[in-house]
Design brief:
The chain is mainly beta. Helices cover 0% and strands 51% of the residues.
Amino acid sequence: MPTIYSTPSIFEFPDFSPLATIFGAGRTEAEDLSIGSGFIVKSNPHPSAGQYLEANAAQSQAGGVFAGATGYYNLTLGYFDETDGTSFMEILVNGAVVAAFDWGAPDGSQIVTAAAKREYLVEGLHLGSGDIIELRGARDGGEPLRSDYIDISPGEDPGPASNFSLEAEDLAVLSGFEVVRNGAASASHVLQQSGGGTARACYTMEQTGIFDLTLGYFDENDGISELWVTVNGAEVARFLWDGTSGSNLANKASLTEYLIPDLSLKAGDVIELSGQGDGGEPLRLDYLDFAVRAAAPAPPPDLWFEDHDYVVVALNDGAGNFTEVVTDIATDVYYLPGQPDIARGGASIMSADLNGDGLNDFIKVSHAVTELPDLPPATIDLPFSFTVTTEVYLNDGEAGFDLAAISQEKIDLDLQEYAYDGVELPDDLFKAYAAGDIDGDGDIDYFATSFAGETLFVMENDGANSFSVQATTVFELGATRNDARIADMNGDGLLDAIVTTGLDLNRLDVLINDGTGTMVPMGGDSPSEGPTGNPQAVDLDGDGDLDVLHTAAGESYGIYGYLNDGSGGKAIGGPILAPSDGTTGTAIGADLDGDGDIEMITGSHSDDYSGELPGLRVFDIVVGDTLASFEEVYYNPNIVGNVLAPADYDGDGDIDMLIISDGFRVLENDGTGAFSLGDEVIPPFATSEYSWVPRVQTGYFQMVDEMVF
């Protein structure tokens, strides 16, 4: 998924929709950008194509639409940094600042010459097709923001942040500072104020993360100086140098530190230190230490499921104990006559964070079709239209859910003749399976299918939780036991589709998102004569891409691994656990022993032919040149059941899971991949949501500091 940048601009411009194209590789001349405000095109022999953008107002804006594939890039801005002013420039992606810097070169020229040419580099920038890149700036003095070009080149994922230190004398001096030798300083030099007025120096971040920034400086007792710190022009700290217990000299006794905690920084951010000395205390800066602030561990997750007429969330107390809360979100199921615990039909319910507050919300998808029109004789397909309603329920932070948005979309289908033999409404006409940011624009979309219409749907969020069809893909689905997941199967930042098809087809298929929401079949597997199910996207073979673990029914029933070749296609033969005469049940892939590799666990495997009795088994996945295999490493004959919903439920850092074994229970991991059976955590419930077993899924539904247990 593309990075969602969030640092706000200091400028306020009207809404801007540039039409110019910024090339995905190579140079885009600044004069070819769309001008939003305050720029004009000027000719001059020194810029790269004989022209540049020049500010003709106090504030200026220009931009274009990125036309490259999703990935990491380096962006270089070419400009003329003259010495008769200190202009300021921001570079933005989709309205958020990714870099900000002063044009404060101390040497060069006061006019546009080769001596004034400069380049500013932003590395590791994540861009996707359609992203809007902007330049916003403020001219100063005789320096009118003369912008020459934007170069785009392949970049690298910046990776995780790490601790680093910076000597103050290595900062870029903007004004009023000079480097002075001092034996008490960490590298025998300080950055010292050289005169009156405000002294300024800056540093451009090369990493992205949350840091505790410690400033080392000399706080002498013969004056009260002041320093303030800004990030991209926004002040983050201001403090007085008012120490009285040290020395009136810059020595070990007056060396002190100031901590600025929890600074959220990204590559390209400009940190500026500005200040004014006082009395006998000129500003003397020694060093800057950046310490990565460890992210707070995610709280143990809650659970949710559909029980009879309503959605239920089960709130985790942090130790794997759950309290059920019945929501007001109706499932719309119906019951077979005289069988109140057998639910059928109902709406499609999905859970995701739709408003970015860190808590799960709900999406409910339904339609009102109760029967299909009669199919005329000799008709193969019949045009049919109906309306899909999507409701969004936002979490209030206390596991209460308010209906916040309703949207309706007309769906046009060609009903297939073969579907009339076994269609079950509402699911076989339109069913939503998975929610996520399918198109990489930062909001939550969802994926749906129609067995009756042989169609896959991507339903796009407009950013305000209103949904419409982005794209459809013609795709045949077998009757009953269809299922789907979404995951990035080719590493391009877009979510692709994993579809399991039911009777008559009995396949697992991987389809790749072409960038428009259309899903292109890339690979598949048909391992058995019965339906496939329980697909899970997980890196089984440790090669960095997602594979699929799934089960299959029929004569060749068993547990199968679809190994990805990196494009979504099938690589070498995947691991298989297919008993000759016994049971299979469900399977989960996860790092169960903390070794960094994925193991497979199942609780119902048995094989009468080979004498393998039922029990909980863990398998390593061993990859050879032409195939992979499951190799058993753990067996507990006392635990039998279907495993599901892997997560760290008790907060001890390892992967637990649920198991259906005399009710829904937690399988507690001891950290080595050995398990004990916990107490029942969810009483029996009735649901129409089955994928081999009743679905119970994880989420975060209540603020940690508001837990009430």
